[in-house]
């Protein structure tokens, strides 16, 4: 189903496009399919959202750039850990939320590809990743707890680990806290509060970025949102 969603999104890719390439298991399907199109002659350039995606794309022969070289993109295609009917997302399960958000914000359109299990009525079943600076991380965690509590959100906040004695580090060298708040009834309010905490680099609430979501299920792929929105 993930590959079906990726294939449906690929149909909107045209020659000459500047593409943001997402991170994660579903986005990897899109990169694979794009690589096949490039081998067949499709002329595009990609900006990867992680080192993992960069290595995958390079191995497939996809021409790559950076946001410094190509600061404006036509389309980003990425996955999501959760999404709701308002096209709000939780991302960051793959550890690339900051770069994913930067790339998405640089794009005219953002397509999300997902299977139907990622659709929820209210965000929060998937723990919300929050990327934080390593300096003062314990203090930052307390601020996150207080900000969430002010919205009635109480749940375990755990530091992501690569090994029992090794904290997970993002490509930017930051920590990630996974926040099991449960149902987030006011994601905009939580996003605003988290963004004001000095030690928070960014959070996994993607609001107002996705223009369309390609949802693969047993009966095929349906589209939520506007595929043409923002297209030149």
Overview in brief:
The chain is of the alpha/beta class and 232 residues long. It has helices at 2-10, 25-39, 51-59, 97-105, 137-149, 187-195; strands spanning 18-21, 45-48, 73-78, 82-83, 89-90, 107-115, 128-132, 157-159, 161-163, 166-167, 175-179, 200-203, 205-206, 212-217, 220-225.
Can you put this structure into words, describing what you see?
The strands form 4 sheets. This protein has a 6-stranded mixed beta sheet. A 4-stranded antiparallel beta sheet has the order 8-11-7-12. It has 2 domains: 2-119 and 207-225, Rossmann fold, CATH 3.40.50.1360; 128-201, 2-Layer Sandwich (Alpha-Beta Plaits), CATH 3.30.70. The chain is an alpha/beta fold. The model has no long low-confidence stretch (mean pLDDT 97). Strand 9 and strand 10 form a beta hairpin. The chain contains 6 helices and 15 strands. It is globular and about 50 Å long. Helix 1 packs across helix 2. Helices cover 28% and strands 27% of the residues.
For the biggest sheet, the summary is: 6 strands, mixed
Strand order, largest beta sheet? 2-1-3-6-14-15
Return the average pLDDT rounded to an integer: 97
* Overall geometry: globular
Architecture of the largest domain, according to CATH? 3-Layer(aba) Sandwich
- In N-to-C order, the SSE pattern is HEHEHEEEHEEHEEEEHEEEE
* Share of residues in strands: 25-35%
Unreliably modeled segments: none
Number of strands: 15
| CATH-derived topology of the largest domain | Rossmann fold
Note the quaternary state here. Answer: single chain
| Beginning-to-end CA distance, first to last residue | 29 Å
C-alpha-based Rg, rounded: 17 Å
- Total helices: the number is 6
- Give the tally of structural domains: 2
What share of the residues lie within helices? Answer: 25-40%
Structural class per helix/strand content? Answer: alpha/beta
In the CATH scheme, the class of the largest domain would be Alpha Beta
């Amino acid at each position: 189903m993930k590959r079906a969603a990726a294939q449906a999104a690929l149909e909107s890719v045209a020659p000459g496009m500047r593409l943001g390439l997402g991170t994660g298991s579903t986005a990897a399907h899109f990169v694979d399919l794009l690589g096949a199109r490039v081998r067949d002659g499709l002329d595009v350039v990609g900006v990867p959202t992680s080192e993992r995606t960069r290595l995958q794309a390079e191995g497939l022969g996809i021409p790559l750039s950076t946001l410094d070289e190509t600061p404006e993109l036509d389309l980003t295609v990425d996955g999501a850990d959760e999404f709701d009917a308002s096209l709000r997302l939780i991302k960051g399960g793959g550890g690339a939320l900051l770069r994913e958000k930067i790339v998405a914000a640089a794009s005219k359109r953002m397509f999300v590809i997902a299977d139907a299990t990622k659709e929820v009525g209210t965000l929060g079943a998937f723990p919300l990743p929050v990327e934080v600076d390593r300096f003062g991380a314990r203090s930052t965690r307390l601020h996150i707890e207080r900000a969430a509590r002010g919205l009635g959100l109480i749940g375990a906040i755990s530091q992501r680990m690569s090994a029992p004695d090794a904290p997970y580090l993002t490509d930017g060298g930051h920590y990630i806290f996974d926040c099991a708040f449960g149902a987030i009834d006011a994601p905009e309010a939580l996003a605003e509060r988290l963004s004001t905490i000095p030690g928070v680099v960014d959070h996994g609430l993607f609001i107002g970025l996705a223009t369309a979501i390609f949802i693969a299920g047993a009966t095929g792929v349906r589209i939520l949102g506007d595929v043409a929105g923002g297209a030149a």
